[in-house]
Amino acid sequence: MRGFLQRALSRAGYDVTSFANGEEAFERLKQEPFTLLLTDIVMPRMDGIELARRASELDPELKIMFITGFAAVILNSDVAAAKEARVLSKPFHLKDLVQEVERVLAA
Q1: In sequence order, what are the residues at sequence separation of 6 or more whose Cβ sits closer than 8 angstroms to the Cβ of residue 98?
Q2: Three-class SS string for 43-76?
């Protein structure tokens, strides 16, 4: 799925960097700034909520968007990153993903 999302966003004109798990993503976030963190909530080695929490500590201006297969997921209110984050529930069409990314970046 990561490959499909990366290709769809790249075709829409975005510069996309993807990682196999939350720990790899966090290590890269410590090295360079990003505009948007698009993360699945359920991932190996570090879930998306923990990744978002840590990432927002590094960069409070980082925009965050979650993807989840669990429509009823409630983000913990003490996660600072979750307050302004968007959640896109699976399944979704790739055009919906691109539109939601556009909205998040425009906000």
Answers
A1: 8, 9, 12
A2: CCCCCHHHHHHHHHHHCCCCEEEEEECCCCCCCC
The answer to whether the pTM exceeds 0.90 is: no
Structure tokens at 76: 């913990």
- Its sign, for the CA torsion 27, 45, 12, 35, is negative
Q: Which domain holds residue 21?
A: 2-106
- What letters, b where the CB count within 10 A reaches 16 and e where it falls short, cover 70-88? eeeeebeeeeebbeebebb
Structural domain count of the chain: 1
- CATH for 75: 3.40.50.2300
Tally of CB atoms within 10 A around 3? 8
pLDDT tens per residue across span 55-103:
999 999 999 999 887 655 555 544 545 557 888 888 899 999 999 999 9
